[in-house]
Design brief:
By secondary structure, the chain is of the alpha/beta class. Helix content is 33%, strand content 19%. It binds iron/sulfur cluster (2 copies). The site of one iron/sulfur cluster has 14 residues, from helix 2.
Length: 470
């Protein structure tokens, strides 16, 4: 009698099934059906097998695109227990070469007339020119126009616009997209940004790039949609739990919204770290003349990307490290990276060469401060404007040469002193204890400092001064 050898029936690791259903169509015996339960380890819904009618034809195994999906049942896993597939089935052979960096390419743009657009649109155009083709977000006033423009353009450019279910989802989409080495961004405002910071901490820990444009509104809480600089502290000192920092850029014109968003992508990939662009509600809505740059970026692909092809399969990005020693080493590494990021500190100086009164202001309040400087100069007052373009790192190296001549520093801001605190922290971290008297002109709740108040501060009129430090 010829011996009939039973063909092995298929076996499925649910953790490796993405629920594509190819095996369902392949099975002539209808042994496989769509599942109904989400697998908690993957968030996907694996198929279910009922193998009573199975004849072991293996068509489902051939149909399965997952390397560790359907397999012939190995004897040792007949009673299912999750095991390392490499141990069960051996190393998956690949001829793919090790990944290498695919460099970025700059493409010249034809000359065109300047645009007259809102700050939010300018930042979105900056992102598109920086090669951003993935947007995730939960629209929120006063940043919504940025998301709207991305929704309009990205599908036409072969990109992805995804309105997430929340800001928490948004930042996690960005984690995945940035981890794949792709350029992604969001537009948000204070309440949304607060919800994102845990995910930003994960991105920093896992060294994943991404750009967050935060068009700040009046707080605390839901507050209102008028301009404030309420998130300086959150962006500079509070990016989630752990040891976190990101470059924080502060544009003050629609042109700078474009230029600094472009720069943000460059820095995000240079340092493999999120970058924050802090605008305020007024700047997001303000219309201004914007010149486009002479070139745009066609992004390459970094070798570290978890890109999902065979070549990049061995790459892993994770923000968890349960070994204390390894985690400390990782923290030391990212602290070295923060030190390197300090070289990115930038500032714009206006009439500062001989300034005895130095205004320090960023974002929209710096526009009022600039007007005050111009008018004070007409009255013979030696005033100047020091405008940080990064609030983290604070551009102290650019400020220090002004201090010997300055008789007073006046911080002008739409917050209760968050910019002033960054200045004081920067001075103290450098061990600088001798500096001129520091005063503040502040407003909150959506009110911006006015030019006459700033001038009064320079002229020493007490009604406009809030002395904070001597
Ligand atoms: S081995 Fe053949 S019969 Fe069995 S489940 Fe797969 S496709 Fe269906
Ligand atoms: S073909 Fe593979 S991945 Fe797709 S549903 Fe079937 S078992 Fe899952």
């Amino acid at each position: 009698m010829p011996q009939v050898k039973e063909r092995p029936k298929p076996f499925l690791f649910p953790e490796f099934c993405k629920g594509c259903g190819r095996c369902i169509s392949a099975c002539p015996k209808h042994c496989i059906a769509m599942g109904e339960e989400v697998n908690p380890m993957t968030g996907l819904v694996p198929v279910v097998l009922d193998l009573e009618q199975c004849n072991g034809c293996a068509l489902c195994i051939d149909a399965c695109p997952e390397p560790y999906g359907l397999q012939p049942t190995p004897a040792e896993v007949a009673d299912f227990e999750l095991q390392d597939p490499e141990k069960l089935f051996g190393l998956r052979h690949t001829e793919a070469p090790a990944p290498v960096d695919i460099p970025d390419e700059w493409i010249p743009l034809p000359a065109c007339e300047p645009l007259v657009i809102k700050g939010n649109y300018a930042a979105a155009i900056g992102a598109l020119l920086a090669g951003c083709r993935h947007f995730f977000g939960y629209p929120i006033t006063p940043s919504t126009e940025g998301a709207e423009l991305m929704a309009k353009f990205l599908p036409k450019l072969g990109g992805t616009y995804l309105q997430a279910v929340s800001e928490v989802a948004t930042v996690n989409h960005m984690y995945g997209c940035g981890g794949a080495g792709l350029r992604c961004m969001t537009f948000t405002s204070g309440p949304g940004f607060s919800l994102m910071v845990e995910g930003i901490s994960y991105m920093i820990g896992a060294e994943v790039p991404g750009v967050f444009v935060n068009i700040m509104r009046g707080g605390p809480g839901l507050g209102n949609i008028a301009p404030e600089q309420s998130d300086i502290k959150l962006a500079c000192r509070g990016l989630g739990h752990g040891n976190t920092h990101a470059v924080v850029l502060t544009p003050s014109t629609p042109q700078e919204m474009l230029d600094l968003t472009l720069l943000a992508f460059d820095l995000a990939f240079k340092y493999r770290n999120p970058v924050i662009v802090l605008g305020d509600g007024y700047l997001g809505q303000m219309t201004g003349k914007v010149k486009l740059p002479p070139k745009m970026l066609k992004p390459g692909l970094p070798s570290w990307a978890v890109y999902g092809d065979e070549m990049h399969r061995k790459n892993l990005i994770s923000s968890i490290d349960l070994d204390e020693h390894d985690l400390e080493l990782h923290n030391l590494d990212i602290n070295r990276k923060y030190e390197a990021m300090k070289s990115e500190a930038r500032a714009d100086l206006f009439m500062c060469e001989d300034a005895e009164t130095v205004f320090v202001a960023c974002g929209t309040p710096s526009r009022m401060a600039k007007g005050a400087v111009e008018d004070l100069r007409k009255e013979g007052i030696k005033a100047g404007l020091f405008r940080p373009l990064t609030v983290w790192p604070f551009p102290l190296p650019q400020l220090l040469p002004l201090l010997p001549r300055a008789q007073r520093i006046v911080v002008v801001e739409a917050s209760p002193g968050q910019l002033r605190d960054e200045l004081l922290l920067a001075l103290s971290q450098e061990g600088i204890s001798k500096y001129p008297r520091i005063e503040s002109v502040t407003h909150m709740g959506g009110i911006l400092p006015q030019q006459h108040e700033i001038m009064a501060a320079a002229l020493g009129r007490q009604e406009a001064l809030q002395e904070v430090h001597a």
